[in-house]
Amino acid sequence: GVPALRPFPAALTNYGKRFATATDAHYLILALAFMAGRPVIGVLVPMVTLATYHASAYANRQFAGHQLWQRYGAPCHRWLADKQSHALQFNAVSEISLGFLTLLSMLGPGRSISQLYVTWSVLKQRYKSPDSAQQHRVAWQTIDERVRPYYSRVSFVHQLIQKAKAWFTA
User: InterPro entries of this UniProt entry (predicted)?
Assistant: First the structure.
């Protein structure tokens, strides 16, 4: 007879849970949200950085024995591998910058509330994701340290930031 479909929904649910916390899913959601609106080059920065690392790792696996790769590609791959922690931190900062850029774009004529919502929802997911949580926490701590001296000057901003932090960490 016909195979049972009972295990399929459970398997799909398990896959969906793993996929939802993956970096690739977050970037896919961002790409889909920004495809329909005005072009924002800043969206590409984290994606291109990640793609560079993926391409380098793939090329290193596939062409490790090739003479041209050993001469030109392998040193580049080693350099990228040495700088990976810096690249991950750069990605976290560029993702957060994209969030603030999207927030500022609400003041202009090409505003898109859906892009704003998606960007900040993805940032919230990136903050909680095992792939990027450490880098995002460091980036947010750095931002908080730099903004903290201005809290006393503008008290209502401090209250807004506290509410935003509560939403972000919930």
Answer: PER33/POM33_regulator (IPR051645), TMEM33/Pom33 (IPR005344)
